[in-house]
Design a protein that fits this description.
The strands form three sheets. A seven-stranded parallel sheet has the order 1-8-9-10-11-12-13. It has a four-stranded antiparallel sheet with strand order 3-4-5-6. The two termini are about 10 Å apart. Helix content is about 40%, strand content about 20%. The protein folds into two domains: about 325 residues, TIM Barrel (Alpha-Beta Barrel), CATH 3.20.20.210; about 50 residues. The protein is globular. The longest helix is centred in the middle third of the chain and has 25 residues. The protein is built from 14 helices and 13 strands. Helix 2 runs parallel beside helix 14, helix 6 crosses helix 7 and helix 7 packs parallel to helix 9.
């Protein structure tokens, strides 16, 4: 059985020869991803290519400028070097005034930290959304390369944020939760506008090139203890349901991405019609065991996860082996499970301990995942 067949069968609860193994952001078959071009990652990436099932994270290029719009808003940027990091300050010119934001990138860390958000007040939000909406256009010119590299060794997955995510990320997280709770009408109007823009963009994306799987991110912002389940039902469920229906119409599959405590909103996630859920974090990071999650999903959601990245980075190899075995005991039965870490390392160089634990994870999953 090819990796492509194995992954698609798992999502559809069809028979597979073994539990698929995904290494999430460590994508074996995308020659342009950083991990395939960083010397310290080369040995583990060879093992990943040889023994796991690739879910290639890849997104179409677009002409996005700001506010989910292709409108050519003026954005000025000035960068400044610090001690082992680079700060960049952005100035966005909107019809209702100037907004600023800042980001920091540390040397040898493959991520970006948002140190200042565009919006500090509701007036800032209104200014941000005063940028006229022009639907995005997408370029699928890189698709042939990725499809050729992945082949039958896996599937291709794009990522798209839900409208609640777009709203929450306008502000510092603490301020955004207060905004959602204390000014629900204004927050709801903002989410609705982002949804209007996002659905037009999503359809343009799907028309340009539909890939195998779509990861919808953002629902985690509305899970307890950050916000009550009622906010999830208002600001996530109806919108993700519409996104899922559209993706299905174009032949794609949907994986909802939500870290943290999903037990109280699991029925809402199930109601969206999504095909899969990740990363299915066990307590204490989440609030539901993998076994209980599998029982409640009851053949309706394929589960991706349950190996914590922090364990892969810091735990003893014996702990990793025991964790993988327990995952198989809890979720292997009747299919619908892809074993996967909750995230991926971003430090350069890759530590020897992390590499060793990834090897233990993969080897143990191969040993105990056979049907």
């Amino acid at each position: 059985m090819t990796s492509r067949q194995r992954l698609l069968n798992a999502v559809a609860f069809k028979p597979t020869d073994r539990v698929p193994i995904s290494t999430y952001e460590l994508v074996g078959y995308n020659s342009r991803s950083f991990e395939n071009n960083e010397t310290s990652y080369q040995n583990i990436m060879e093992a990943i290519r040889a023994h796991t099932d690739c879910v290639c994270m890849w997104d179409l290029a677009s002409d996005h400028a700001a506010a989910l719009s292709a409108f050519p808003a003026q954005i000025d940027a000035v960068s400044k070097r610090g001690d082992e990091y680079t700060d960049t300050r952005y100035v966005l010119h909107t019809p209702k005034g100037v907004l600023t934001s800042s980001r920091r990138v540390y040397d040898n860390v493959q991520t970006t930290w948002q140190t200042e958000h565009w919006c500090k007040t509701q007036d800032d939000v209104d200014a941000f959304l005063s940028i006229p909406f022009e639907p995005l256009t997408y370029n699928s010119g890189d698709y042939a390369r990725v499809q050729n590299e992945v082949g039958d060794r896996g599937i291709i997955m794009a990522s798209v944020g839900d409208p609640g995510c777009a709203a929450m990320e306008l502000m510092d997280f603490a301020d955004a939760t207060v905004w959602a709770m204390t000014e629900p009408e204004h927050f709801a109007a903002t989410v609705e506008e982002f949804h209007r823009r996002g659905m037009a963009n999503l359809e343009n994306q799907l028309k340009t090139q539909t890939v195998d799987l779509y990861r919808i991110y953002g629902p985690e912002y509305f899970t307890p203890p950050f916000l009550p389940p009622s906010c999830f039902r208002q600001f996530v469920t109806p919108y993700v349901t519409e996104m899922t229906a559209m993706i299905h119409r174009y032949g794609g599959l949907v994986r909802v991405h939500s870290h943290g405590r999903v037990a109280q909103v699991l029925d809402d996630i199930l109601s969206t019609g999504a095909d899969a859920l990740d990363p299915c974090e066990a307590p204490p990071d989440g609030d539901i065991t993998l076994r209980a999650l599998k029982e409640r999903a009851a053949g309706r959601l394929c589960l991706f996860g349950n190996i914590q990245l922090k364990a892969l980075e810091h735990a003893d190899a014996k702990v990793i082996r025991e964790t993988v075995i327990r995952c198989m005991e809890d979720a292997k039965a009747v299919g619908g499970f892809v074993i996967m870490p909750t995230a991926a390392p971003i430090n350069v160089p890759l530590s020897p301990k992390t590499e060793e634990n990834y090897r233990v994870f993969i080897d143990t999953a191969l040993e105990y995942g056979v049907y």
